[in-house]
Amino acid sequence: MTDHNSPAGAVGGGQPSGHPAPFGHPAEQRGAQQPPQQQQPQQYSLPSDAARAQVAAAWVRRAPQAAVPPSQAAVPTLPPRSSAGSGKDAKKEKRERARAERKAEYERKKAAREQRRTGGKPGAATAAAGTPDGATGTGKSFDVPKAGGRIPSGRRTHVALRATLMIATCALALGSCGVMGLVIGKSGAPQAAALDAAEAEKYRLTRFPTQAAATFAEHYALLCLTYSPQTSENRRKALARFASAGVDADCGWSGDGSQRAVVANWDGTVEKLPEYGEHGRYLGIQVRLSDGRLTTLSVPVYVKDLAHGEGLRIAGNVGEMPLPARGPVPPVDEDDQVVDDVLSAQLQKKVLPGYFEAWGRSDATAMTRFTTPDATSAATSGLQSALAEPQVNEVQALAPEGSDDGDTISYRTDQAVQARVTVDWTDADGGTVRRAYRMTVVNTEQGWFIKDIRGGVLDPEGGAADAGEATPAPEESAGAGDDAETEPSTEPTSEPTSKRDKESAGGKKRAGKDD
Question: How far is CA 212 from CA 246, 263, 308, 361, in A?
Answer without folding.
Answer: 23, 17, 10, 41
